[in-house]
Amino acid sequence: MTEHPSMDDLRRERMTGPDYDAREYQAGRAEAILAIQLAESIRERRLELGLTQTQLAERAGLRQPEVSRLESGGGTPTIGMLERLAHALEVRFVARFEKVDAA
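Given the sequence above, the corresponding structure tokens read:
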């Protein structure tokens, strides 16, 4: 039986290959972290309100699979979708740019 490389080995190989771009990797990682944070905040607020995904979807004019996808960190919601979700979750959606502290 052939032994498969570990995830660490694959990551190391990818990060040292000729196509590796550290800035692109960091940007993708930052985007993934934001998606997870958004997913967690949607799910936590939904649960605080005692809503099912279906109930939240109905309140926000969405379909349950869309709510499920957002709560799992998938997809890229539009500003309009975020506004509808905020209204359905009885919160205010705030988007802003913040200065980065100089290190």
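DSSP finds five helices and no strands in the chain. Try to locate this feature in the token string yourself.
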